[in-house]
Protein 1
Amino acid sequence: MNLPVHDFGPFLARKPAQIAKGPLAIILIEDDKAVAATLSHHLRRGFRHILALSDAPLTLTEAELAPLAGKVTNLILNTRRPDAHVEAVNAVIAAVPEAIWLYYCYNAEFLFYPFCETRSVGEMLAFHSEERRSAMLTYVIDLYSGNLGRHPDAVDLEQPLFDRTGYYALGRKGADGRPLERQLDFHGGLRWRYEELLPPDRRRIDRIALFKAAPGLQLLPDHRFSVEEYNTYACPWHHNITAAIASFRVAKALVCNPGSRDHVHDMTWRNSHPFRWHSEQLMELGLMEPGQWF
């Protein structure tokens, strides 16, 4: 069975009701891994609608489709080409009303934020807006299988692992070489442990995945925005909420890409730890924080 399918550009040009209110999720589907699980997870977080972008119509079973009906629209776009997120996100920014909250991720990625088990993403973003914030930093936390023989694509939704240590931040400099205020480059996870197999511009784990649409706002290829304040981790006067995206994306790439697959036989190490699919675990390890939200 299929979701409603439309061509990406013409759908946005019509400015349909599905994109009139936020929070709105944009999910880029790059392969067939955990597609239904990704869509269902984000609907449970409370997004009003999801735009599922893929290069061909998605086919789901009747059981997978049932909870998605009326809440997910499948848009056709070449999501496999480099930097597809730039075209996709910027086109949606230009099409939606100003100041609605948007979110973007890829399939086999799962958003977590403080207390997400009992509070909707809309509640969290309403508080963030009250703090005069228009964007939210998310850390992309790599998930992976502990048994690549059983899970050759590195995706294990039942017993995933992640790195509980090894995360760090470096100061970020602007084009003039000076440090940028309240901006850092964050590193860790598989991108750190296998950095020799990843290009330098793919080694950061920070992503501004939640943000308000604004006239002229542009997402850049490195997951930062053209407005520098959007790229900050907090306001000047206190810490703000941060979120996390638990992601199999790097693990999938490492075991599938020709340049790395022969070098990766077991992703586990002494600091691999079971991922519990709960926001409390991420807060305990400092991988996201509630700020002033309790």
Protein 2
Amino acid sequence: MLTAKPLDVLPHVRHGFFTREGGVSTGIYATLNCGYGSNDDPGAVRENRARVARALGSEPESLLTVYQVHSASVIRVTSLWEHGSAPQADAMVTDEPLIALGILTADCAPVLFADEKARVIGAAHAGWKGALTGVLEATVEAMSVLGAHRSRIVAAIGPCISRDAYEVGPEFRERFIEAARANERWFIPSSREGHFMFDLPAFVAARLEEAGVGAVATLGLCTYADEKRFFSYRRTTHRGESDYGRQISAIALRPDA
């Protein structure tokens, strides 16, 4: 479990960016695969998620994930749900203690949020599409509705694909530039003519800063490059493998919040 210092120092918050290590799954899912959307044994995934919940001081059933669809949709969590009834969204916020908000990733950026004073937390799944269409800003706004203040919010960006591993085509870059000319700065030419390397973590950090978040931290770890610690959708695709696991990042309020 990896942590971000700006969240670590908050006494009422528990969080972790979990790696692929420390679970019970085998084969291409080894070992801490937390994604029910994979073809892994559901029993193994359930045990892996229970280990994550316990590491956060939560009960296994209190670790919640949504059905992620690369949108800008955010939900407020007030009660628990079963795995099969998870709502479609890409971010969650809550002011309820013990509920752990989990984000599943395998190259996209997991972002964990907290306002210690307001006792409000959030978690967002920020792939390129969600980040471009506003999932981060929507999460900040949803936290504000619960009493958080933008200037007090701490956000931490977990392991995700780095610029060195994220080659994209010209149409991808053009979509960003059409949204805002300033987005050109997140691309550099790749070794292939007409292609570019995209800096997802820097783009996410910039969007958070522009949204008025008080502090933004980035772990700076690449999921594609570090096979020992992280699952990667793009690495799996390049190898022609049949499936891939998902690591989880989660945050919860301590019960005395």
Protein 3
Amino acid sequence: MTEQRTYPEGVTSWVDTEQADVDAAADFYSGLFGWTFDEATPPGVPFRYLIARLDGQDVGGLGGPSTPAAPAAQDAGSGGGGGAARWHTYVAVDDAVAATGRVEEAGGAVVQPPTAAGEGGRSVVVRDPQGLEVRLWEARRRLGSQVTNVPGAWNFSDLHTDEPAAAQQFYTRAFGWEFADVGFATMIRVPGYGDHLASTTDPGIHERQSGATVPPGFADAIGWVVPVAPDAEPGWHVTFTVAERDAAADRVVRLGGSVVRTGDSDWTRTAVVCDPQGAVFTVSQFLG
């Protein structure tokens, strides 16, 4: 039996999206990434939550009202929680209550206190001092994304902010993160995460990243801090791996979404895209 992937405290561990029309969103992401979905909530409740799976493994979540919102609300990009449809990022914590206290002590605010998600775990919704939402996950039965960094799976979550110094101060105090300026962006690291991966699900990580092509400490990386792009909003932004950027962007359009912009670097070809209900995310082709 394949060992389940676990996430030490402070590591981003899960992503999900809230949408006005859950079934329509499931159709879009199934067509784009090949996901299948399992219902995680019992029938008869007002809010549905689906677990997205890739090749039988948990990859993310999709939630929204049991009854789709009116067409006008969908056109406005309303998510299941009454706000704009968007992707959310979760940080793994050992104790949701203790982590909530650290967030408040560091200057953040609690939007939703620790809330049980059945037998899966407990979630918390918080905002950093700049008002940017991030979520916390105390895992019980559901440990976090079980497949990452392969086509169709979550790659990274990045913090897009124009106040990087203030953000770094908050996240260091709240989650123990370290930050390293590597020139093209600022890397977010959780010390010891690479060793955790090496001892569990990725025993060859240090050897694979021992060359000069990756920044020092990259095995501990969980994301990046980057400036806010023109006409974009600050916040936590989710990237998914794809085999080929242009083909993925074409599928987004065929499925009713849109392409916001594309970009190329020495390592990746990316496209920032928008799903039919308004959630923005990135698809990224690795050039290694």
Protein 4
Amino acid sequence: MKNKIPKLYVILLFVYFGLGRFLVIGQDSNLKEKLSLDAVNFIVLGDWGRMGDDFQIPVAAQMAKTAKEIHAQFFISVGDNFYPKGVASTLDPQWRYSFEDIYKDFSLHREWYSILGNHDYMGNPDAQVEYTKISRRWVMPGRYFEKDILLKDRNKSVMQLLFIDTNPLIPEFYKNKEYGPNVMTQDTTLQQIWIDQSLAREDVQWKIVIGHHPMFTGSKARREGYDTRSIRSSLKTKFEKNKVDMYIAGHDHSLQHLISETGIHHFVSGSASEATDVDMLPMSKFAKDEYGFFVFSATAQEIRVFAISHTGEILYQTTIDKK
């Protein structure tokens, strides 16, 4: 007589394969399989601090799942960290209600390399710099700074991350009653010199620049806006001259990938709490008005990029090879 499978065992199998799958519904279980074992994985989000309003909480929850799945080593925030008007000080309640209490999962307690957006300039931008001394994970040692990431190859290749402050690069901001006072406290010429010197390095495998305002964007409201035009005027030639591989921005509340005529990859990741309409440009490879973030997985040979929605769906993926 053949052995019968106990009913309890059948029930447990059903719970594991049935209910277990239900618990992770919306999470794309194939993401980890798409990454190289020797890659450095990180998540980029932008335009998020709304005290949990809009879709900030669902996006944060999915970020936690994704970060745990891919073993994210750090996070990058591309600005507009606190709405509507930044923070007043390191004791501002926004630190708790828009950041600490929202991104509280253990998988999110890695370094958050952060820059300033225009909304952050409506408060006290230097308070976000000062919070670096208080937080174990918030990293903003200055309004602009540089970070080298060591890649996992035999040659000890370096991925250069250049975090810039785009706000002083926009002339109209100096006349703005809310942005102007803080913009004028920064030496824009000094930052431009620093950008030139930093990008001139020849000892790095990848050159990636992170700023709040995009150089190119598909949204009708901003594709030829004064801020977008100003960024192109200030940075486009610098990037091309120094062979920048990638520029990552936010500001537009969407997820986008565009490639310029010179081959520079532009990403917009600004929908970590709100998503607004976006269209495709001739240079666009992907554009979506969806709540979410980008995952970057870097090796010395390639960087794989994934747009992830708040439900865990892989909306888009691409691979950038090192030429």
